[in-house]
Amino acid sequence: MFDKILIANRGEIACRIIQTARRLGIRTVAVFSQADAEARHVALADEAVPIGGPAPKDSYLRGDRLIAAALQTGAQAIHPGYGFLSENPDFVEAVTAAGLVFIGPSAGAIRKMGLKDAAKALMAEAGVPVVPGYHGPDQSPARLADEAARIRYPVLIKAVAGGGGKGMRLVERPADFADRLASAQNEAATAFGNSAVLIEKYILTPRHIEMQIFGDGRRALHLYERDCSLQRRHQKVIEEAPAPGMTSEMRAAMGAAAVRAAEAIGYAGAGTVEFIVDASAGLRPEGFWFMEMNTRLQVEHPVTEAITGIDLVEWQLRVAAGEPLPANQDQIHATGHAFEARLYAEDVPAGFLPATGRLAHLAFPATARIETGVRPGDQISPWYDPMIAKIITSGPTRALALQALQGALEATEVAGTITNLDFLIALTRHPGFRRGEVDTGLITRDLAALTQPLSPDSRAVALAALGLAGLDDAGLDPPDWTKGFALWQPLRQRIDWEGGHAHVEIPAPGLFRLHLDEVSHELRFANDRWWVDGAPTPLRLVHHAAAVSVFGTVPVTLKPLDPLARQTEVSGAGLTLSPMPGLVREIFVTPGQEVKAGERLALLEAMKMEHMLSASRDGRVAEVLAAPGDQVEAGAALIRLEEKEAHG
Ligand code: ADP
Ligand code: ADP
Ligand code: MG
Question: Gene3D superfamilies from the entry (predicted)?
Answer without folding.
Answer: 2.40.50.100, ATP-grasp fold, B domain
